[in-house]
Amino acid sequence: MRIKIIFFAQLRDFFGAEREMEVANHATIKEVVSSVFDEPHAENARGFPLRFAVNECFEQQDKRLKDGDVLALMTPMAGG
C-alpha cells in the first residue's frame, strides 16, 4: 500500500518536507517510522521524541495505516 509522509520542524532538515512510500499492508506507525529512521542520513534524528498524526488526527504508534493515509511526523511543540 502507498502512504504519504509529511515531516515537520527539525525532521524536515533530515528528510525533506514530504515523501510517498510503499509499506506493508496494515503497517503500524511504529513500523513505518522505524523504516524511515533506519536510513543512513537519519542517524542524527534518531533520538528525537516524536508525535504522530494520521490524516490530521494525533495517534499512537500502534495505529495501523491504510492505503492513501497521510502520516505526519513532528517533534513535540511547546507554546508560550
Walk me through the structure.
It is a single chain. The chain is of the alpha+beta class and 80 residues long. The protein has two helices and five strands; from the N terminus they run βαβαβββ. A five-stranded mixed β-sheet has the order 2-1-5-3-4. The longest helix has 9 residues, at 29-37. The radius of gyration is 12 Å and the shape is globular.
Describe the strand arrangement of the main beta sheet, using strand numbers.
2-1-5-3-4
What's the CATH C level? Answer: Alpha Beta
Largest sheet: 5 strands, mixed
Strand content: 25-35%
- CATH architecture call: Roll
CATH topology description: Ubiquitin-like (UB roll)
CA-based gyration radius: 12 Å
Average pLDDT level = 92
TL;DR?
The chain has 80 residues and is an alpha+beta fold.
Helix/strand layout:
Elements: E1 2-7, H1 11-15, E2 18-22, H2 29-37, E3 51-54, E4 57-59, E5 70-74
Parallel strand pairs: 1-5
Antiparallel strand pairs: 1-2, 3-4, 3-5
